[in-house]
Every structure is written in structure tokens, then in C-alpha cells.
Amino acid sequence: MSQAFFRCSSCGGINRIDAQRLAEGPVCGRCHKPLDRSAAPAEVDDDALERLIKASPVPVLVDFWAPWCGPCLMLAPHVTALAQRFAGRLIVVKLNTEEHQRVASKLQIRSIPTMIVWKGGEIANRQVGAVMGPQLDAVVTPYL
After folding, report:
1. 23, exposed or middle or buried, with CB in 10 Å at 0-12, 13-18, 19+?
2. What is the pTM assigned to this prediction?
């Protein structure tokens, strides 16, 4: 049976769901709120990101961005579409580097947008600059 993984937008818990049961309206095992199966990228802070990276059984794509960044804003709908295409196999989150600077500083992120893929708690790929279409898919597909 195929498994899908979704991050609860309410409590941040990671939920494993049998893919055949997705249409049944699953709820979070921790907080019991309905899971957002659209997989739209959630905003996270430094602490939530660190917990997610350590706990996720599937790859995690983090979009490091800022509200004043034009390329970041252009990239946002493409990142959302990517998250929806790979829903259940990839968790996508966004970290606003203006509000949450600790992880970005630790990773020496000097340019945004920067996207980083973690797999098994380790950095698997880093993409600096906006890429779209097949190039964006190529950032994550080797790690799925």
C-alpha cells in the first residue's frame, strides 16, 4: 500500500496516510484537525524548520525568501504548484529570512531566493536563484 506524508498546518506534526484513504478527509494524529491535502507551502519559523528537517520521512524543500524580493514573489506560485504536484512525497515550506534569520545565517544564505532540499536530515541540494518549470522539478526529483 502506498504511503503519503503531510505536515499539519496547525501543529506541524507529520502524518502518514495510506494513499488510498486520502479522499476520506484525514485528520492530524496529534491535534486532530483536518489535514490540508493541497500541500500548499506553509510558512515556518527557525524552530519549526529544524524540527521538520529532523523528523520528516520524506524530502523537505525549503524556499528561503523575503517579501521585498521580486524574484521570490515571481517564484512563489511555481513553488506552490511544485508542492501540489509532489504532495505526499515531498514537504514544501517557506522561511521568511527577514523575520527568521537564525537558520539562514547558519546556512550562509547570502542571496534569495534560495531553495534547499533536505533528505534524511541532511542537505541534498541547494538552488540559488529562481528557476521554474522543468528546472524547478529537477531541484527535487532526484531525491524523491
Report:
1. exposed
2. 0.94
Contacts 24+ apart (CB under 8 A), 66-73: 66/96, 66/97, 66/98, 66/112, 67/96, 67/98, 68/98, 69/112, 69/113, 71/112, 71/113, 71/129, 71/130, 72/112, 72/113, 72/130
Q: Is residue 8 annotated as a catalytic residue, yes or no? A: no
pLDDT of residue 102: 97
Choose, from 8, 11, 31, 69, the residue flagged as catalytic.
69
69 is known as an active-site residue: yes
Domains of the chain: 39-143 (3.40.30.10)
